[in-house]
Amino acid sequence: MSADREAEAALLENLHLRHAELATLFDECSSHWGFEDPVYRFYHQSFKVYAVQEQTVRIVGALESLVPDRMLNAWFRQIVAEGTGRTFRPEDNDKWTALTRPVLEAFFHARFFLEMAVRYADLREPPTPLPSGYAALLYLYDLR
């Protein structure tokens, strides 16, 4: 079995084994405080939008742990790097969208992949044909 096939098999197994944990995290990231409020805070120009970075980091950690011996997709890592590790400063208000859109973008991408992990957790083998969300999940692990 090739390394990619082994990694995909590990991904499927870990999705299945950790479905409940992933679903709980997704529910938290889809709740009023975990999803609605951060988007509102962006439009309200509230420093509280920066708090969504904590969720992004939690999601990324969960995704990384599903196939720990593989790096996540380089574009995804770049998006996450540009949208995390930020601390609000009052002068951020002068460049609000330029500084906070990457924060939400990183969260949205991470949340999308978490949702796909939850959606496809019941698979026991790769589906044919590949649904777009599952194919995207494979790209996250550079398996496609």
- Average pLDDT rating: 96
- Show unreliable segments: none
SSE order: HHHHHHH
Percent strand: under 5%
The best one-word shape is: elongated
**Secondary structure: helix percent:** 55-70%
Q: Structural class, judged by helices and strands?
A: mainly alpha
Number-wise, the strands total 0
Number of helices: 7
Structure description:
- There is one protein chain.
- The two termini are 16 Å apart.
- Helix 2 packs antiparallel against helix 6 (96-119).
- It is elongated and about 55 Å long.
- It has helices at 3-17, 19-28, 32-43, 52-66, 74-82, 96-119, 132-140.
- 65% of the residues lie in helices and 0% in strands.
- The longest helix has 24 residues, at 96-119.
- By secondary structure, the chain is mainly α.
Short note summarizing the structure:
By secondary structure, this protein is an all-alpha fold.
Please give the structural blueprint.
Layout: H1 3-17, H2 19-28, H3 32-43, H4 52-66, H5 74-82, H6 96-119, H7 132-140
Helix pairs in contact: 2-6, 4-6, 5-6
Attribute tags:
144 residues; elongated
